[in-house]
Amino acid sequence: MAPVAPTPQKRGEKLRRAVLDATLERIEREGIDRVRIADVAVAAGVHETSIYRRWRTLPQLLLDALLSRVDEQIPIPDTGEVVADLTEFMRSLIAFCRSPVGSALVRGGSLADDPDVATARADFWAVRMAASEEIVRRAVAAGELRPDTDPHLVIAMLGGLVHMYVTQFDGAMPDDLPETAVALVLRGAAR
Question: What confidence tens digit (pLDDT) does each residue in 123-133 have?
Fold first, then answer.
């Protein structure tokens, strides 16, 4: 019988991607509160110790996995028109929040008790808000909105509305929520 060649170890970005993909697959299939590092390790084809070296706790792994999807699933649109950009931004945000991964990120679940995770979440949202606010900054620069329009407030109002529907109203959102909310918020910022 021929000897079995050892499986090459995953390292660096290959390890990170395999673990995050396995974690996301478990979140989608089992729910965030049923994900275990041992199961992720098996699915990713890595040792548990490799996971613990990079992510010290399960909540840190869960957060990294959840955040890895945000940029690709909620892009920052740039159509050249603020109404279209904010409406598309909200559509993407709603679609993401309706997914198991997005809902887990918004609701927090088992992520809430880890102070390192709380810090990482706060840092992430600060960066994400700044990137999203660029939609409003571009519109102010183009003269579409008043110069005193607060980009942070506009994005917080739209994103906060989606967050409220997910956390307080079981995710049941009207189909026209993006258009209605953007129109309402921009009435206060229009020139």
Answer: 778 888 999 99
